[in-house]
Amino acid sequence: MAHAAGSSETQIKNPGPVQVSSGVMQVLIVMTIVGMVMFGVALGADSKRAWSAFIQNHFYFMSLALGGLFFAAVQFLTGAMWSAPVRRVAESFTSYLPVVVLSFGVLAFFGMKDSYVWMNPAHVQGNIILEHKAGYLSRGFFTIRNLVAIGLWLFFSWKIVGNSLKQDVDGSPARTESNRKVAPVFLFLFAISFTMAAFDQLMSLDPEWFSTMFGVYMFAGLFYSVLAATTILTILLKRGGALQGIVNENHLHDLGKFMFAFTAFWAYIGFSQFMLIWYANLPEETGYFLRRLDGGWFWVSIFLMVGKFVVPFVTLLSRENKRNESTLLFAGVFMLIAQWIDNLWVVQPEFFRDGPHVSWIEIGTFLGFAGMFGLCVARFLGQHSVVAIRDPKLAESVHHHHQ
Known about the structure:
The chain contains 17 helices and no strands. By secondary structure, it is mainly alpha-helical.
């Protein structure tokens, strides 16, 4: 193991950190500031739309950050060789997790009254279902358990990504072994905590509806989008020269296969949730989908059923397309947009029954969150090597894929 680490250092040139151009950084800063200002203006103009957009984008970018940690944990748990050159890219997404504390805090302390009907005592009183859930759906308990979940994610990010970064310095294989032991603990707690966060922050927008598959559905979207984001950033770094000679078409092929597989997985989970509720035909369950098949939401549902699945599935079906940078970039960007629309489809019908509302409020809020996410990732990659250069499996991955 020690020999392999040394071999990776001597045979593979360390690309080091990547300094994002001042122009890109300025764009990200402007996006963040403009987004914050537009959200502030939106609060005065239409608070309901403002908080709807906030919840959607908060959960979207939280999922990307947490998805990066999930990706890294799975690689350590399985002892994966193929992912060593690209794992650091996914790890960079976890740098956004501290911002999740802030965005959730804003929601919990300022936005809940305008967003969650169970916060209104008049709405709960006399409703047997909500009165039964009142002990769980309370502001204090909601805030505490979600902050505990985010705290757990931050701790495991500090532990897993921290070990990965420290290995760049000391090259100790013990760092990998430590992460291999920590990873299953995180993945177990991740399954519970992320499901809880999805139930609390999204499903409780309609507190009378429930689905035991909702957590899995949101997880499918999480991994669907983080694979797309990892692929996009890997290709951009490769084109910029940072990953030249380290990442090649074989690694991209591996990423493409995962994108293809989890496109099918998302479709399977989405269909399963819909089919079970449709077949049971229980009034307390069907209302969720009836709202999303009525009015302007019908076409959004059609897009998700056809576009979110069919477009990336067909695009990534052939071996050649999985190895083509331009095709992967198209598929990745499309998947990120589709996941954003999916989150819109989950959140907005609880606020607006007539159809989707997308204008300066939604776009502005997205720009603010995207700018913050981009700044966190750029800062991380500017401080740390874009490759886990002393990972024991790095040389094996790079040279194995060149054979």
